[in-house]
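ugh ok fine here u go
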Amino acid sequence: QVQLVESGGGLVQPGGSLRLSCAASGYTLEYRSIAWFRQVPGKEREGVSYISSSDGSTYYADSVKGRFTISRDNAKNTAYLQMNSLKPEDTAVYYCATPRRTGDVLTPPLASYWYDYWGQGTQVTVSS
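structure:
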């Protein structure tokens, strides 16, 4: 059974940092693309970041570019999202997602329809 489990969320002050983890079980991340999304109640889910399976190339939404860094550790079957200089508008539930198929997803990489498996989400709250 495929399972993705996010962790690392919490409450942080503006300007602070968090590192989210996405651990996979029953499933190998190594040959698959990975993406992070976020959602605020009442709003559409937003793609945040993507990392390819082929060469580790990354893509970021403009709203997080320069502040967030996506990475993967294939040996640990885990992906990460390092979030720095956090802002109140980053408050959301964050989800990791991967496609069922191996290889890179097509353009646009942060379109949710590419992704078949989703974690349960982890809450990130940025507030003073």
